[in-house]
Amino acid sequence: DLLAEVFYGQSSTGANLATVNAGPSASRMGFFLGSEAEFTPKLQGDVRVGFQDFSVDNSSVSNSSIVVESSLSYELSAMSKIDLNLSRSAQQNIQAAATIMQFTDVGLNYSQMLDAAGRWGLNSSFRYRFTTFDGATFASREDNYFTIAAGINYIAKDWFRAGLSYSYTDLSTSFGGLDYGVHRVGLDFVIGY
User: Element (H or E) spanning 102, and its range?
Assistant: First the structure.
């Protein structure tokens, strides 16, 4: 299916303290053209490309750029698939409302069922995000963020599942002193009722 979308929105920033002035509002408008379909028997998803104009009120800060929202899934076999997600957009910075963040986000996920009953499964993922900042507060700042993760899941019953996972996240930025790397191990139990 072919699709066309037009969007317009406004955001406002309030003050957390009575002694602090509220931040400026921002507005965005633009359009997407794209397709949502089963492209082949094994490949399905949606691809949308467009243009967005984002501006902060009472400020010279603005961003006009190409935007992308894409999500594709490819079935490698009856028991495995790979997903690709791509997003490119701009948004107002929550820490400094007169700043616009332009980001490109890429995610890749691989899922593999280990048994025919579908009770055991492996998954791994990679995500990369590149962000630039436009505004006086974070002028010329660039962030590189990535995370890798892997895990194993077990579905004992429809109402009970468990999982073990590991992830590593890394942020490097041109804005001094904020770089970090974090390792995480998770043990999850989900009970439905």
Answer: strand 100-113
For 44-66, give one letter per residue: b (16+ CB within 10 A) or e.
ebebbebebebbbeebebebebe
Q: Looking at the whole model, is its pTM more than 0.85? A: no
For residue 193, CA distances in Å to 36, 163, 187, 189 come to 34, 18, 20, 13
The pLDDT tens digits for 133-182 are 887 677 788 999 999 999 999 999 889 999 999 999 999 998 877 899 99
What are 125's two structure tokens?
């993922």
**What is the distance in angstroms between the CA of the first residue and the CA of the last residue of the chain?**
37
Token pair listed for 73: 């899934």
Structural tokens at position 133: 């900042």
Supply 51's token pair.
Answer: 């243009």
> What distance lies between CA 153 and its chain's CA centroid?
23
Retrieve residue 104's tokens: 């490109």
> Which pair of tokens denotes residue 172?
């490097």
